[in-house]
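Dock iron/sulfur cluster; give full complex structure.
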Amino acid sequence: MLGTIFSIEDFAVNDGPGVRTTVFLKGCPLRCQWCHNPEGMSFEKEWIEKKNGERSLCGEDIDSADLAEMLLRDEKIFRLNEGGVTFSGGEPLAQSEFLFDVISSLKGRVHCAVETSGYASAGVFEKIAGISDLILIDCKTTDPETHKKYTGFDNGPILENLKRLCASENKFIVRVPLIPSVNDSRENMLALLGIIRGAKSLLGVEILPYHKTAGAKYCMLGKTYFPDFDVNAKPNFTDVFSENNINCTVL
Ligand code: SF4
C-alpha cells in the first residue's frame, strides 16, 4: 500500500524511548497556529524554496512494504539502544491503513511509537493504538473554544480518544505544546490532570516549549506566518502533574 512521507530522521532522542528513527507522514487535518512542521500539513506534495533559490519537492510516495524493509535494516541498532521507530507527521493517523501495514511488518521486532494529535475516529484510533507499543498523544488544550480558535477544529474527538487511552492497556505519554497565553494556564493543566489522573498505562507528561523559529519554514513554502498569540511572550508552566505523582518532563 502506498503512503506519503516527507522526511525520515535518524537518531531522534525525544520521540520515545532510546535512540529512534522518526518517519514523518505527510498531511494533517488540523491547522495549529504554532505548527513547527508546516511542510507536513498539506496532503499534497509541494515545493520548498530556500533563500538561495534552491528548490526541492517535499513529499514522497512509498510502499508500506518497502518502508518496513528499510526500517528493519536497523533492527539490531534499535535493540542495542532500546530505541525503535516513531511515526509522526503531519498526522500519521490520517494515513491509517498505510501506517497499520508498516507497523504490522515491524511488530515484535522493532519498538513502534506513534505521535498523534489524537484527531481521528474512534475506530482508527483504537486500531492503531492496539498495534503500537507506545502512543504519544498531544493535548493542546482542554477548552473547546480555544482549541477551535487556534487549530481550526473541535477538540471533542481528541479528548474522547485521550479518555480511551486512559481506560486502555496501551502505554501512552501525553504531550503538551506550551503556547504562551493560549494553553499555559494552571487551569488548563488542572483540567488535563483531571482527565489523565489514575490512567494505569500513562507513562508521563512531556511539555514542549514553543519556539518561534517555527515561523522560518513557512516562507520557504510560500506561506505567511501570522500566529494570533505573542510569539515573544514567556509561557507560564505550573507542574501540577509532578505534584500529583505523574512523571513530567520539559523537553
Ligand atoms: S496537529 Fe501537529 S502537525 Fe498537525 S497542524 Fe497541529 S502541530 Fe502541525
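Observed: The CA atoms of residues 134 and 166 lie 13 Å apart.
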